[in-house]
Amino acid sequence: MLELKHRWLSLPLLAVALVGCSDGADTPPSPPEILPAYDFTAVDQRFQQFLDESSVFDGISVTLVDQRQGTVHEAAFGDHSLETVVMLASTSKVPVVMLLMALNDDPDAGFSVDEPIAS
Asked: So which residues are the signal peptide here (predicted)?
């Protein structure tokens, strides 16, 4: 008899449990963000030109990493391969300065070498 008295509770409790398992979202999830694809052809050509004109450097290898996309470009020139191990030391200074100067020259970049990076 006890089962019969409480059986009517099972359907409302089941409904509450199912609603509790729902995320409550009526809208579909947002589509994944479409990240830009970059063309580094001109950059690669300039690196090759630099290497061809240099009597000091035998090779260049470069990897560009984006915080969201991960590795966005890898290239190797001359006697370097993508597996060539180099000591970083000061080797990153020249490409970083080249990048900063390119950003400075690009009016759409919103970057100026005359402005402080942080206050």
From this structure: 1-24
Q: Per the structure block, which two tokens stand in for 18?
A: 């199912």
Tell which residue, 78, 73, 44, has the closest CA to residue 58: 78
Q: In sequence order, what are the residues at sequence separation of 6 or more whose Cβ sits closer than 8 angstroms to the Cβ of residue 79?
A: 58, 59
pTM: 0.49
Contact call for residues 60 and 77 (beta carbons, < 8 A): yes
Q: Where are the alpha helices (DSSP H) in 7-118?
A: 10-21, 41-53, 93-105
Run of H or E including 3: helix 2-6
Whole-number Å distance between alpha carbons of 51 and 36: 29
- Taking only the tens place, the pLDDT of each residue in 63-101 is 888 888 889 999 999 999 999 988 777 777 888 888 899
99: number of Cβ within 10 Å: 13
Beta strands in 41-95 (DSSP E): 59-66, 70-78
